[in-house]
């Protein structure tokens, strides 16, 4: 699996029992584009009580998705016509009919042409109900020349099969190079989308920060007003430090405003001097009426609890609004943005240049073969 990591996602579901049957052989031959070919040999299927340590039919179908050609060999002696083999062929025909190629292997072991025709007819009859497009079904003979002691006169399709492999390799190389270019453009477009989305997120975050920060500052006005009002009521506003830094007319205007909003509490009668009490008791009715009218005119708009709870409510409402407006969208870090731009530049320059060089090399090889 180390040599073929692309097969691991489909075969790991049969692990670990399938690993005991896996074996890899590497050939150093460079004839006929051999380094570009990977042969995957599956085990022969038998019926009866024989038990495989893993679902061999499902494993064959999993590997078939990664192949360009699927060769099925029928032995003229055993013929490999067991029910399990027929079921696998039927399932392969459902999704990979265009990849399937059927061969009568070891055709040089058949004594004469008449016997070979009988074998071909028998195999064709067994496959006719399981293979799509059975009217165009072919079962050519294939064998390795020189392995038989007798000279075989049966046509061998080995050279035509090798030529088909070469054409498939050329087509796969061309498709992979075209796919490489498409993937590079897809990666570049995706990076552009990420950078564009990040730019929009940054713009949104700047606006959200400004709105949220302004609302947060506005929420601080309420507690500042409350503190200023309490300073006025406690008499700290007449402190020497304040009177030295703030003009007196502004302090007086601020005090009048506070008294207009919340009237000062009336002085207790016990706080007045004795002479004042006698004078108050002897006041005429007109003066009493005038004093009553003056007291009513000096009453404030709100009581002290109403002012405190009102300012507290404004503070909490503006704080909640600030949190709602100060919601930031996720954005890329500077390091991530730099990495994306470097990746995009690498893909669109070096990778595409490599693709163009390989494509030119591929065309040169094809032209040399044609000539």
UniProtKB/TrEMBL annotation:
Record carries keyword Membrane: yes
Entry annotated with the keyword Ribonucleoprotein: no
InterPro entries: P-loop_NTPase (IPR027417)
Transmembrane segment boundaries: 208-231, 307-326
Source organism, top-level taxon: Eukaryota
Entries under Gene3D superfamilies matching the protein: P-loop containing nucleotide triphosphate hydrolases
Residues forming coiled coils: 163-197
This protein's UniProt keywords: Coiled coil, Membrane, Transmembrane, Transmembrane helix
Name of the protein in question: Dynamin-type G domain-containing protein
Organism, scientific name: Haptolina brevifila
């Amino acid at each position: 699996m180390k040599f073929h990591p692309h097969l691991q996602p489909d075969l790991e579901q049969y692990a670990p029992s399938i690993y005991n049957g896996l074996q890899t052989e590497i050939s150093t031959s460079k004839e006929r584009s051999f380094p570009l070919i990977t042969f995957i040999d599956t085990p022969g299927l038998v019926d009866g009580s024989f038990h495989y340590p893993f679902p061999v039919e499902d494993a064959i179908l999993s590997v078939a998705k990664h192949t360009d050609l699927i060769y099925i060999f029928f032995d003229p002696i055993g013929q490999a016509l067991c029910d399990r083999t027929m079921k696998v062929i039927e399932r392969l025909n459902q999704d990979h009919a265009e990849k399937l190629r059927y061969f009568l292997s070891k055709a040089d072991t058949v004594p004469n042409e008449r016997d070979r025709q009988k074998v071909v007819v028998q195999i064709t009859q067994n496959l006719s109900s399981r293979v799509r497009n059975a009217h165009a079904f072919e079962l050519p003979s294939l064998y390795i020349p020189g392995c038989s002691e007798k000279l075989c006169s049966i046509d061998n399709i080995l050279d035509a099969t090798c030529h088909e492999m070469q054409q498939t390799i050329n087509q796969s190389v061309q498709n992979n190079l075209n796919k490489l270019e498409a993937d590079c453009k897809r990666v570049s477009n995706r990076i552009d989308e990420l950078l564009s989305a990040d730019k929009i997120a940054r713009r949104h975050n700047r606006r959200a920060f400004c709105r949220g920060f302004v609302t947060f500052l506005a929420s601080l006005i309420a507690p500042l007003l409350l503190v200023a009002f309490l300073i006025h009521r406690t008499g700290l506003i007449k402190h020497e430090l304040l009177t030295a830094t703030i003009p007196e007319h502004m302090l007086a205007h601020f005090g009048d405003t506070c008294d207009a909003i919340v009237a000062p509490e009336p002085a207790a009668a016990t706080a007045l001097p004795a002479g004042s009490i006698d004078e108050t008791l002897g006041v005429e009715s007109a003066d009493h009426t005038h004093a009553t009218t003056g007291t009513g005119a000096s009453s404030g708009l709100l009581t002290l609890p109403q002012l405190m709870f009102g300012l507290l409510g404004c503070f909490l409402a503006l704080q909640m609004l600030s949190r709602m407006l100060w919601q930031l969208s996720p954005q890329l870090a500077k390091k991530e943005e730099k990495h994306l731009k470097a990746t995009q530049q690498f893909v669109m320059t070096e990778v595409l240049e490599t693709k163009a060089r390989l494509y030119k090399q591929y065309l040169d090889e094809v032209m040399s073969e044609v000539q």
